[in-house]
Amino acid sequence: MEQQSLNLSEDFAKPETSIFGCYANPKSFKTWIEPPSLTSPFSWSHLLRWLLFEKGHPKISYEEAEEKLPIHSPKFPDNSVLGATWIGHATLFVRIDGISLLTDPVWSDYASPFLKFCRRYRPPPCSIEDLPEINLVVISHDHYDHLDLNAVKMLSKRFSKIKFVVPKGLANTIRKEVSGENIYELNWGEHIEIPTTSGEEYTVWAIPAQHWSQRSIFDRNKSLWSGWLIEGPKHKFFYTGDTGFCQEEFKKVGNRFGLIDLCAIPIGCYSPRH
Asked: What InterPro entries does UniProt report for this protein, alphabetically (predicted)?
């Protein structure tokens, strides 16, 4: 295969910021439609259109879920192997170049601040106690189906040297559960280098994503959302996070990093399409 010429100076888009400390997708994200809010009344029409005419996801029964998606105890990849194990929704266990990482670890039964709301269809195939050593956690944004504070607390307690890499503005949300020296907060296009126990380094890049953030009625878009690219000595892993189709930014990922060895892309929850 012909070697691709990389553009190491490729600049990623930056989020817009307001005087109130809120983030927003840049205007270059042409397909973005703002979710409904009190400050964006016209966006409610998009929600109603989706609910009435486009949404086609009937609830699955427990029996059908048992048949179509049975729970199996995971067999995690060997430490020397590039591989991934799906835990559920956006939670992946990934081995890459001698380190182990988790994306958006969620183990709770409900993806909501309220009980009995947004209950998960299938339980995790393992407990946090069953996990092998975890070196890194990347969190894409603060929605409850991607940020489980109880899981963060349990992971931090079990693995004292675990590192958490989060988008701008999100560190304060997890600071009560994680030692500050183990939290790294990045804006799009920024990166950090983290040494391994073998003396090598891997690099974590924050990649633009088309999404939004909110955990309560008071903190809409107060923290950023992001994809993540982990660049090891031999391999590259790209986790897009929750994102719409950022055509120009995806092109930049290819231009900047070349061939990606392993990707995690949200192709299951594709509605609304923005």
From this structure: Metallo-B-lactamas, RibonucZ/Hydroxyglut_hydro
Low-confidence residues of the chain: pLDDT under 70: 1-6, 9, 36-58, 268-274
Question: pTM for the complete prediction?
Answer: 0.89
| C-alpha to C-alpha distances, 274 to 193, 212, 239, nearest whole angstrom | 33, 11, 18
Structural domains counted in the chain:
2
Question: What residues are paired with 136 via a beta bridge?
Answer: 101, 163
How big is the CA angle at 87 (ends 128 and 70), to the nearest 5 degrees? Answer: 115
Examine the domain organization and report whether 219 and 159 are in the same domain.
yes
Q: What is the DSSP letter of 163?
A: E
Do the domain assignments include residue 16? no
- The backbone region for 97, taken as left when phi is positive above 0, alpha when psi lies in -120 to 50, beta otherwise, is left
Other beta carbons less than 10 A from residue 60's beta carbon: 14
